Amino acid sequence: MTYPAVVIALAGVVMIVVVAVIVPVFANIFKELAADQPGLSDQLPTMTRMTVAFSHFTTHNWYIEIALTIGGLYGFFRWKKTEHGRHQWDRFKLRIPRIGDVVRKVGLARWSRTFSGMISSGVPILQAIEISGETAGNTVIADAMDDVYASVKRGGTIAEPISRHEVFPPMVEHMVSVGEESGQLETMLGKIAEFYESEVDAKIKALTALIEPLMIILVGSIVGFIVISMYLPIFSLYNNTR
Question: I need a labelling partner for 59 at 20 to 30 A (CA). Which of 45, 84, 168, 173 fits?
Fold first, then answer.
C-alpha cells in the first residue's frame, strides 16, 4: 500500500493548493462580476457555490481542519490500541472487499508458518498454539486459537474448534485434521503456509493493478469537479453576452 498511500497524499496536497490558492482567484472574479451584475451570485451553479464555500472555509478556518484531522487521527490510534478497538478494527479489515481476503490470507500464512516451525522445533503444543495465535497479526485468529488451546488442554483436537470459526476456510480444517490423524501436523501446516503465501502474492499483484486506475478515477473526479465548477459560470456569462 506504500505506492497508493504516497499518490493519495500527494494528490491531497495538490487539492489543498488548488482549493486554497486557485479557487479564491475565481471567487474574486465572480465577486467582481456580481458587483457589476446584481443577482449573479444567486445564479451561480450549485457546484460552483459548493466549491467556493469549501475554499472559503479552508482558507479562513484552516486551523479547525488541522485540529479536527490531528484529533481524529489521535483518537483513532488511541482507540485501536485498546483491546476492544483492536478487535473491532481487525474484524472490520476482514470485511473490506478484496482487501479483507488478503488480510485473512496473510494472517493464515503467518499462523500456519509459525505453528509449523514451532512444532517441528519441539515446542510444546499448548505453547505453540498460544504463540502462533499471537503472531498471526489478527485478533480474530488469536481468539480462535484461544478455543483451540482450551480444546487441546482438555484432550480434544485442533481441527474441531477451528471448524467453528469463519476465519478458517474448510480446507485448513481438513488439512489440520488429516495432519493430526497421520501424525504429520507440521507438514500439513507447512503446506497451508505455502499455499496462502502464494495466494497472497497473486492477490497483491491483482490489487496493485486495480488500485492504480481507481486512484486515477478518484483524483480525476475531484479535479474535474473543481474545474467544471469554476468554468460553468464563465460559460454561462459568455452565452448571456452573446
Answer: 45
